[in-house]
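We were asked to recover a plausible sequence for a given structure. The inputs and outputs are reproduced exactly as logged, with field labels preserved.

PROBLEM: sequence recovery
POSITIONS: 85
GIVEN STRUCTURE:
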């Protein structure tokens, strides 16, 4: 099932977790929406896998063990991209 979480992400995440009983949230897009649901998903121990955002905050397994990003951080990509400009 593919669900777009844009408006009221915590409400959509709660519906997916509590009503639909999803196994995990996979490859959700965007920093604001993922930030809004990160604490809730970790509290419920629902994996937030392959978060699709370049923010550095997704690499924090000590505080958010159920969240895993996959994109390189934007700050890591900048030097490489600027070499081509």
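RECOVERED SEQUENCE:
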């Amino acid at each position: 099932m593919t669900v777009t979480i844009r408006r009221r992400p915590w409400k959509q995440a709660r519906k997916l977790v509590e009503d639909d009983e999803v196994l995990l949230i996979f490859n959700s897009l965007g920093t604001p929406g993922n930030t809004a649901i990160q604490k809730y998903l970790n509290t419920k121990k629902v994996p937030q896998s392959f978060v699709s955002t370049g923010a550095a905050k997704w690499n924090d397994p000590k505080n958010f063990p159920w969240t895993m990003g996959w994109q390189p951080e934007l700050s890591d990509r900048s030097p490489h991209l600027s070499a081509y400009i």
